[in-house]
Design goal:
The chain is mostly beta strands and 124 residues long. It has no helices and eleven strands. The strands form two sheets. Strands 2, 4, 5, 6, 9, 10 and 11 form a seven-stranded mixed beta sheet that branches. Strands 1-3-8-7 form a four-stranded antiparallel beta sheet, with no helix packed on it. Strand 4 (32-39) and strand 5 (46-51) form a beta hairpin.
């Protein structure tokens, strides 16, 4: 059983920054690929970013590329999402997720565990 506890998020103005964290209770954190997804009201959950076990390789959705940075600290069992130059369209509930194995995926059904979600609101 893996538990993911998210923190961060909040309300910021356009152009502001936020850093999301996702802490895992497991001690095999390095054996999971991890990702961030988001879901805006009335919309389906969409992929944001993912990172491999080593933390060396990462991938981003086109909508956030150049503005968001995913990282992980395996010693602290924590995943991060640094969000810069935020836009109102980034407003959503953000979820961290993990999957067995070290190969990344942008498809939500392939992930095995999910965080509780945290609200990010970007005002105009």
């Amino acid at each position: 059983q893996v538990q993911l506890v998210q923190s961060g998020g909040g309300l910021v103005q356009t152009g502001g920054s936020l850093r999301l964290s996702c802490a895992s209770s497991g001690r095999t954190f390095s054996s999971y690929a991890m990702a961030w997804f988001r879901q805006a009201p009335g919309k389906e959950r969409e992929f944001v970013s993912t990172i491999t076990c080593s933390g060396i390789t990462s991938y981003y959705a086109d909508s956030v590329k150049g503005r968001f940075t995913i990282s992980r600290d395996n010693d602290k069992n924590t995943l991060y999402l640094q969000m810069n130059s935020l836009k109102p369209e980034d407003t959503a509930v953000y979820y961290c997720a993990v999957k067995y194995g070290c190969v990344w995926s942008s498809h939500a059904p392939q992930y095995d565990y999910w965080g509780q979600g945290t609200q990010v609101t970007v005002s105009s």
